[in-house]
Amino acid sequence: MFFMTSRERMIAAIEGRNTDQIPVAPYFWGAEYGWKLVGKPIWEVLHGEEDMTLAILEALDERHGCDWVVPSHSSSRMLRGKSYKREDYSHVYFVDEQTGEEWVFHKEGHWLIQADKIGEVRGDNLGFGIEPPKNRTEADDWLKQHFPHLEEPPQPYKPNRRFRERFPDRFLCSITIAPFAGLAYALGFEPTLVLLHTDPSLCAYMIERTMAHVPIYYSRLASDGFDCGLMCDSWASADIMSPDTYKNWIAPLHKIVSDELHKVGLKSVMYNTGNVLPMLETMANLGYDAISVEERIKGVEIDIKEVR
To answer: What is the mean pLDDT of residues 204-221?
Structure first.
């Protein structure tokens, strides 16, 4: 009988070696679960002054004792300089200490906005009525407007090893990038689908441009003491695109993520939500060390044995 630390156990499992026990690595996404463990109101977790990332990770670790640690939330800090005023069944009211302006937090929607802006149309990621770029010139113009710092040289960086120091024996995994979903959130879901259908090469070009920071970001993760990067592209499944479209245009971008993680010595994990069964053969050849799937989604039963 032998004993492994969580870090050793995860690395061994990913490399296909024997482990002392089955690793436990659930993926807790967002603050909706974590905030209940830290004992603070949800508005403090989402928008408060404190950095809630470490607090949530510590609470999850204490409750579940997982083999990996995945930072997935940080506060927007939008409540900085604002004082709690009152609340009712659906809203919490704050006042800006400098301007006296009232702000409102919605308990269900979790948005925080100036009181006089309530009722105005807020931006969304649907992109209804937006025309996608028609050529590379238009695409470059759009990218300059929405990603103005893409081509700037990297700023000096001092490694931040606070997660490694706090969890020395845990397997540290960072969420990295969602190539297709990232563009869809910025351009809009509908225009991105239109672009992928009418000009997939231009769509892939735009996505690859938004990934310019990837090598630098991953090298910093390595210097921070992380072990792995998790690529979660939540809209890259057969629910959204055909297997051929994925294979020809999106999969090569996913391979870039895995390749760049490996270049700096990190493991790579892929997690495409939705029905990925028609895409498994392609996914298996992208170089990822591990693939995670949903077990049931949108009426499709995904059996882990079938995936294996």
So the answer is: 97
